[in-house]
Design goal:
By secondary structure, the chain is of the alpha+beta class. Helices cover about 50% and strands about 20% of the residues. It contains 9 helices and 8 strands. The strands form 2 sheets. Strands 4-3-2-1-5 form a 5-stranded antiparallel sheet. A 3-stranded antiparallel sheet has the order 6-8-7. Helix 2 packs antiparallel against helix 3 and helix 7 packs antiparallel against helix 9.
């Protein structure tokens, strides 16, 4: 019995060794092992190189671009390595890959559209990290652009003006082919904004215009030279008319008051803060006129209730 068991054990071990030798003698197995080892080595080397290089770059924008470029280059290296390893089999597998590729393309059409969107974003200058955009009805600052998705730090919603609300939104890159892309900071990183002030009839509206002009130039005048330079570049680059960059005050008369509109250019991230400064400046200047210019209001003050005379008649 012991002899039979030893014989069976020897046969089993011999069979396992033979299968192991056959498995490793298969060229496909060797190629798969080479691919696994090679891809791991590329990933490790790229990771180390990226960490070393990004530590030496102080500028955050440049560090982000270098990190993305290295990651993309690593993917290209891996694909090239796999192609070189299986170079002798690609011809025989082309038909099979074609059929499989057609099925995959149909099943992953949204992914492919997002990949095409990433190429369009990268080459077409739709936007870049740091830009403020509106995609698919969502407004925010671009904080990351990956192969499939764009990540935004959202602005607005339940928060007034252009302040962050704390939500991070990821949007498929395919949106650039489906909906308009609003960029607040691409070639012209400024916005036209305006405020409306009602002035009471009987006020000195000439003085009011001077006060509003002075306040607008004092608060927003710092942006005029920069905006003028950027706008001249826009005129040279696009088929666009010239525009007035300096603050402008216009007047219109309504049934209730004289309405002044102050229009000005402001840096896109400073709109709310600058509007606060402008309103404060205007209110201080209006108060200093000692009643010559006063704001109008639609508030009603009920001083006295009228007397009601009620007459009751006897219907009988």
């Amino acid at each position: 019995m012991q002899i039979k068991f030893n014989y069976w054990l020897g046969q089993s071990a011999s069979s396992s060794i033979n299968r192991f030798e056959q498995w490793f003698s298969n060229p496909t197995t060797i190629q798969l092992l080479v691919v696994v080892v090679g891809v791991l080595l590329i990933a490790i080397v790229v990771r180390i190189f990226r960490q070393i290089l990004t530590r030496k770059i102080k500028d955050s924008d440049m560090r982000y671009k270098v990190r993305k470029l290295i990651s993309f280059a690593s993917y290209i290296l891996m694909v090239l390595f796999v192609t070189l390893v299986f170079n002798d089999r690609l011809g025989r597998l082309s038909v099979t890959f074609g059929v499989i590729g057609a099925g995959v393309a149909f099943a992953l059409q949204e992914v492919i559209a997002s990949l095409a969107g990433w190429v369009a974003i990268s080459l077409g200058q739709f936007y870049k990290p740091g830009d403020r955009v509106q995609l698919g009805g969502i407004k925010g600052d671009v904080i990351d652009i990956s192969i499939l998705r764009t990540t935004l730090m959202e602005c607005g919603e339940w928060v007034e003006a252009d302040l962050y609300n704390g939500r991070i939104v990821r949007i498929a890159n395919s949106f650039v082919f489906k909906e308009p892309v609003f960029n607040y900071s691409a070639d012209f990183p400024f916005l036209w904004d305006e405020i409306v002030l009602p002035i009471k009839y009987g006020s000195d509206y000439h003085l009011a215009r001077k006060i509003l002009n002075k306040a607008a130039n004092d608060v927003m005048g710092e942006y005029v030279p920069q905006a003028q330079s950027k706008w001249e570049q826009m005129v040279d680059k696009y088929l666009i008319e010239d525009a007035q960059i300096e603050p402008m005050v216009t007047l219109s008369a309504t049934d209730n008051w004289i309405e002044f509109t102050v229009r000005y250019v402001v840096e896109y991230k400073r709109r709310r803060a600058k509007k606060d400064q402008l309103f404060t400046h205007i209110l201080d200047d209006l108060e200093a006129t000692e009643g010559r210019v006063t704001l109008a209001s639609a508030t009603f003050h009920l001083v006295e209730t009228p007397t009601f005379n009620v007459h009751l008649s006897d219907q009988n």
